[in-house]
Design goal:
With 242 residues, the chain is of the alpha/beta class. It contains five helices and 15 strands.
Length: 242
């Protein structure tokens, strides 16, 4: 899970204050307690600035290398074989937007889209396996796909990740819902990352104080009380109170 931002240092300040994250760049340099005066601390251009809670990785911030790229939070699906999964995505009617490529020694990544155009990423672990913590305050709690056809989404993602979503021991943290349940009907299909918070209202106040915006006020879901917000650069995400 990563945010693609024009200003990684501004993202460090925003999410560091909002969620209490500390940071290291890809080279392992601790940047969590320093103000770098606006200098990009993400290592090489496009390299990740890794976010931590209590020393465990929870997310990454990445500098956009092209201003035409969207400012977004990307959802990553874990896979032991990114190339094989990319072929299954194509066979299922999706697209592989960026074929699998190595991210140093951290792992292998790829970018894909489902048949309706919702974009997601793949991660084949190398030295970085993925989340060190989740389902705790300030960490990943849920990913919701807002789509126009939930049955088609269930068929597509079920074919890719059947056991994780529908198997007898499944405990998924990935849901599917109609776009119009929360967003205007013209909103394109997309993924929305949810971060757990203890108090949605208090977190909304912090978002506003830090220069973010409330996109959708709090609403009730089957998995908790959520609100959709964006950071100061426009990357949208959700706050979730269980």
């Amino acid at each position: 899970m990563e945010a693609q931002l024009s200003d990684v240092e501004a993202g460090r300040r925003f999410y560091g204050e909002l969620f209490g994250w500390t940071f290291e760049d890809a080279a392992g340099e601790d940047t969590g307690g320093e103000d770098t005066g606006g200098e990009d601390t993400a290592g090489e251009p496009g390299g990740p600035l890794c976010a931590y809670v209590d020393g465990e990785p929870v997310a990454a911030l990445v500098r956009k290398t092209d201003g035409r790229m969207p400012t977004v939070w990307s959802v990553y699906f874990h896979t032991p074989d990114a190339r094989a999964l990319a072929e299954r995505i194509r066979a299922g009617g999706g697209q592989v937007l960026t074929p699998p490529y190595p991210v140093g020694e951290l792992g292998t990544s790829a970018l894909a889209a489902d048949p309706e155009g919702a974009v997601f990423a793949l991660w084949q672990p190398g030295s970085r396996p993925g989340f060190g913590r989740r389902h705790e305050p300030g960490t990943f709690a849920w990913a919701e796909l807002y789509t126009r056809d939930t049955e088609a989404a269930n068929a597509f993602y079920g074919a890719l990740f059947h056991d994780a979503l529908f198997g007898p021991d499944a405990d998924p943290d990935f849901g599917r819902a109609p776009v119009s349940d929360v967003f205007p009907a013209e909103m394109p299909p997309h993924f929305l990352v949810h971060f757990l918070v203890r108090d949605v209202e208090a977190a909304l106040g912090a978002v506003a104080r830090l220069g973010g915006r409330v996109r959708v006020p709090p609403f009730e879901t089957s998995y908790g009380r959520a609100a959709v917000v964006s950071d100061g650069q426009g990357a949208s995400f959700a706050l979730l109170q269980r």
